[in-house]
Amino acid sequence: MMIGVMLCVTVLIAQSIFAEGFAGTRPAERSSRRVSFAPKTSSTSLNGLLQDLSDFLSIGGGGFGDACVMGDESIMSPKAHGTSETPVQSNLRWDCDKETADRICNYNRHYAEYRGYFVETSFPQYVKTAGEEGKEITFYDSNTGKPLFVAPKGRSVEEFYKESQVHGWPSFRDSEVVWENVRCLPNGEAVSVDGTHLGHNLPDATGNRYCINLVSAAGNPE
């Protein structure tokens, strides 16, 4: 139990700190981006951290269950381009920044786009349109174009988007994961079978919840 709690705390703290670290280390690059990685207020980050920790503790920690397909560290071994064979696609969906996506997908194991990044892209309008048309949304690997997630399943578009807003990242459930192409490592890191860092599994009271960087799942179909 305590080991699980410590892993969860470590991941959540790293994600909360990431916005500040990313914002402060490469100012020249930030100035040329559509969306800057400015730090969120400490209260917002802390509240989100505490909520995610509370959710985790509410199910008592432990394993990820039979529905979650596990992988091992070899998936993320060094390859031609970081942990992947290729860089991210040049025309990512929803106006996601290519350079940011490439760092998070291919040269990163712990950090994330800042909390709420996805609401500053064209993704919210895309979700709204999908909801009006009654369509599911397929999310593709930003490197390979392979399908990673299909949402919503077993809930409405509004419920999917509301949960994502609450937690700060697109959030998927077991039934929405394309397990042919996705694995979860023992520490909770969610990755593609091709070595793309996607995010982390942060379970809550209802089960596994995969908090995924939009920039990691904004590819076009292969």
Briefly, what is this?
The protein has about 220 residues and is an alpha+beta fold.
> Distance N terminus to C terminus?
41 Å
Series of H and E elements: HHHHHEEHEEEEE
User: Helical proportion?
Assistant: 25-40%
Q: Report the portion of residues in β strands.
A: 5-15%
Shape: globular
Largest sheet report: 5 strands, antiparallel
Read across the widest sheet, the strand sequence of neighbours is 3-7-6-5-4
Number of strands: 7
Radius of gyration, whole Å = 16 Å
What oligomeric state best describes the polypeptide chains here? single chain
Helix count from the secondary structure assignment = 6
Mean pLDDT: 82
SS content category: alpha+beta
Catalogue the unreliable spans: 14-44, 54-62
Structure description:
- Helix 1 packs antiparallel against helix 3.
- It is globular, with a radius of gyration of 16 Å.
- It has helices at 2-25, 27-30, 42-58, 98-106, 123-133, 157-167, and strands at residues 137-140, 147-151, 171-172, 182-184, 189-192, 197-201, 210-212.
- With 222 residues, it is α+β, with helices and mostly antiparallel strands.
- The strands form two sheets. A five-stranded antiparallel sheet has the order 3-7-6-5-4. Strands 1-2 form a two-stranded antiparallel sheet.
- Helix content is 34%, strand content 12%.
- Mean pLDDT is 82; it is low at 14-44 and 54-62.
- A hairpin with a 4-residue loop joins strand 4 and strand 5 (189-192).
- The protein has six helices and seven strands.
- The relative contact order is 0.19.
